[in-house]
Design a protein that fits this description.
Elements: E1 3-7, H1 16-29, E2 34-39, H2 44-49, H3 60-68, E3 81-83, E4 86-89, H4 95-104, H5 111-116, E5 125-130, H6 136-144, E6 147-149, H7 156-160, H8 162-172
Helix pairs in contact: 3-4
Length: about 180
């Protein structure tokens, strides 16, 4: 059974992307089928996982935009990239622009869940990397998740936003 894990914290610089990368590699080395989703406009996970010079045909912002425009989802083979033993739905900086559209439309908080649901039978784990902001992207990632992994550094500013993030997780029904 596939488990979707969102790695989130409302503080930057707490190794969310690094955890996504290493957790996905460890699980893949154990024989698990893993899909990473770069749902962060900074696209660091995509830059880390994609081989140099390899550009995706479609990315998560383009797939999400299709839902926003009431279009059918494209075939997964057009937006899932193979990166060694791990698959990736790459991000794009245009996620930041898409975020504005998600704010103004009703019912958009389940778009990522709608994209990932048909992929669940093909993976043991789907790991989502998300930006640090409390935003429609974060809401989508939390709504799609079965679990939330919250990395923190043992220092004041890293733990300051933890209670706000936990409140957001509880609002979306996460565990």
């Amino acid at each position: 059974m596939c488990r979707i894990i969102t790695v989130a914290n409302q503080k930057g610089g707490v190794t969310k992307t690094t955890i996504c990368q290493h957790l996905s590699y460890i699980l893949a080395e154990q024989g698990r089928r893993v899909l990473c989703v770069d749902f962060d406009p900074q696209t660091n996970l995509s830059a880390t996982l994609l081989p140099d010079g390899q550009a995706p045909t479609l990315d998560i912002s383009e797939v999400t935009a299709k839902l926003l425009n009431d279009q059918d989802l494209p075939a997964p083979s057009t937006y899932i990239q193979r990166c060694g033993k791990v698959d990736l739905i790459p991000g794009n900086k245009s996620l930041a622009k898409l975020e504005t559209s998600l704010l103004t439309e009703m019912g958009t908080e389940r778009f990522l869940q709608e994209i990932l649901s048909p992929l669940r039978p093909h993976y043991d784990y789907i790991i989502i990397d998300i930006n640090r902001a409390a935003s429609p992207l974060m809401t989508n990632a939390l709504t799609a998740a079965d679990s939330v992994l919250i990395p923190i550094c043992p220092e004041f500013y890293s733990t300051e936003g933890l209670s706000d993030l936990i409140a957001s997780v509880l609002k979306t029904g996460g565990d």
